[in-house]
Amino acid sequence: MSQEKRKFYEMDREERLAFLKESAGLTDEEAASFGQPLAFDSANRMVENAVGIMSIPLGIATNFVINGVERLVPMAIEEPSVIAAASKAAKIAKAKGGFVAETDEPLMIGQVQVVSLANIGAAKRKVLARKKEILAIANSKSRSVSAAGLQAREVKDSSKNKMGRMLVVELVIDAKDAMGANAVNTMCEAIAPRVAEITGGEVVLKILSNYATKRMVRCKAVFDRDELGGKDIVERILYAYALAHSDVYRAVTHNKGVMNGVDAVALATGQDFRAIEAGAHAWAARDGTYRSLTRWWRTKNGDLAGEIELPLAVGVVGGVANVHPTAKVALKVLSASNNAKELAMAIAAAGLAQNLAAMRALASEGIQKGHMRLHARNIAVMAGAKGADVDRVAKKIADEGQVNVEKAREVLASLRKGS
Q1: Theoretical Cys-Cys bridge with 266: which of 1, 71, 238, 273, CB 3.0 to 4.6 Å?
Q2: Is there a catalytic annotation at residue 371?
Q3: Which of these is catalytic: 7, 131, 156, 256?
Q4: Which domains does the chain have, with CATH numbers?
Q5: Does the UniProt entry include the keyword Oxidoreductase (predicted)?
């Protein structure tokens, strides 16, 4: 990737697009697609009762080095400070080699629920004895993905309804570079009649699981102590992590910060971020207590090390990623158009970076200082500022610590009077 003469955040929009064209090999048409609303006809095909399009800002996080490769990371998010904070954290990590990430094979689980069984143990044995036959039925429904395994387990209803015991037959499916939801669901529906026949039970649900524990991604990085602000800041960050690990009230907000990074990249690249959220939060509570999705510790030489591990089912084949023009270009900018694993690792890195940035801010000057300085621009616009006046008003109200519409209007009136 060529080195830009100016920092990305210092460029105007045209300069940024020109940089993306050069670094990511975008065509004029692809570059122009940034900022172009989704055509209504396309939106109308995606959802029912469509009336319009809801736009969300799309930015680029810089400085990310993942497994030795520098990447530009697209992020779609409306919250101020997230992209800047992630870029800053990535820059600190870059000094120590950047992020090191790995992913499991893209295995998804599809579930077939069987009820009204007289002998669940016997039904389970019958299903597993016909594993080859059941997998063949599943694989007859797809050319792109493949059912690689079959498992079955007994589940007891723990709700107050007391629906009793049931058998859950699970397909283990290699989704390759797809997220895999449609293929998994199709395979589950295909095997359901045969499973019902083999077990003598009634099939109810036939659906994938978004708890993709066979599709984990792990990412870690080391952050220089001095770049963070010294050993005292490292100590305070570790206290912040201690609370997130040990107290659910803090853990929820801590993980919300993680998901600021995860969701923003997922949304920009056309992923099902609701499924990602559900799986991540389930993983955070896997030991019975909801905890931090990240781990942090001090290295032998006093630097800060962190890692994240979470189930992450993403795809670059099929779904919104292939039909939404902006998502397609975002994948190209990330250099992940043909590789779901690369996308997953970038998403994990963004989550880890954003978590570090949030804890660093909380452990030092507090989260509001930087957040409100960026939010001041929104307040300036609300007060009626336009063009260059937006930044002038924003700077003034942020410097004076009065980030509110009334003060912004006062500053704007003064600027206009002076001009």
Answers
A1: 273
A2: yes
A3: 256
A4: 17-104+215-365 (3.90.770.10), 107-209 (3.30.70.420), 369-418 (1.10.8)
A5: yes
